[in-house]
Amino acid sequence: MTIDPWLTLASFGIGIVVGLTGMGGGALMTPVLVLFFNIPPLTAVSSDLVASAVMKPVGSFVHLRQGTVNLELVKWLVIGSVPAAFSGVFILKHLGNTEQVSSVTQTALGIALLIASFGLIARAYIRLVQRARVRDGRMPPESKDRPDVVVRKIPTLAVGVVGGLVVGMTSVGSGSLIIITLMALYPMLRASNLVGTDLVQAVPLVASAAVAHILFGDFKMSVTASLLIGSIPGVYLGAHLSARAPGGLVRRALAFVLLASALKLLGVPTSTTGIILLVSLVVAPFVWMLVRRHHGFPALAHSSAVASGAGR
């Protein structure tokens, strides 16, 4: 078994991003494997999922001890996601020859990354609206008590099924797509409960997809070992840096990287990709400033922090 030092270094950097934001594991790792290390899409998805299955339980145990997990939500998500994740891999296996599978996997991955990129923006907007409601007294501030949430069984089950299929086929979604849909379904749920619930439900989900990829996919132990050696210390370091780093800035950069990766995987011409990215880079900050002003916040988040500090 050969360890690739460059792949280990790349996974270390991605691990830092995951530790900082709680998102971006499969959404960044898999396209990096495909685009920069020329690893076949199915091999990239298989190896990334097996690596994630090893890492996911660590954070979930912490949240379980802290009581930030809604186990009823986890139950209904898992009922849908575990068989769907296994089925997603089975569907890939029976699509045809290796070239067809690689092509379908790459396209599915591109679409999933595109959704994840816009999902990050949606998540930021939902959090901004919640902050505005708390400020205006239309929504109670987060308390230390666990909020009572009435589980919407059918929608939650549907989220699990769709999320499981996407994760099984692309390795993307267990930490991005599902948490965003949970925010929309349960806006009163605290952020820590959202993260904890999503992380715990992702353990059996990713494990199911990983087992299916070992059986039917193109799992490579050397790739997975390189990922684990780099990503585990990276996640640890990123978690410690998260209290100091501007998380919003990191998430915006992550959305930009996901968009670039999605366009590349979907075969968008380089010139067109460059134009789209340039327009996004120039226009998006001004649009976000207008959105902040519309909800009664300073255009720049830094201004808000300064004002808050001055009022202390």
Any overview of this molecule?
This protein is an all-alpha fold. The chain has one domain (5-267). The chain has twelve helices and no strands. The protein is globular, with a radius of gyration of 19 Å. The model is unreliable at 305-312 (pLDDT under 50).
Helix-strand makeup class? mainly alpha
Strand content range: under 5%
- Main sheet summary: none
The SSE string, one letter per element, is HHHHHHHHHHHH
N- to C-terminal distance: 57 Å
What number of structural domains do the residues give?
1
Return residue spans where pLDDT drops below 50 for at least 5 consecutive residues. Answer: 305-312
| Mean of all residue-level pLDDT scores | 81
Total E-strand runs: 0
Q: Helix count, per DSSP?
A: 12
Share of helix, binned: over 70%
Task: Kindly provide the radius of gyration, computed on alpha-carbon positions and rounded to a whole number of angstroms.
Answer: 19 Å
Outline:
globular
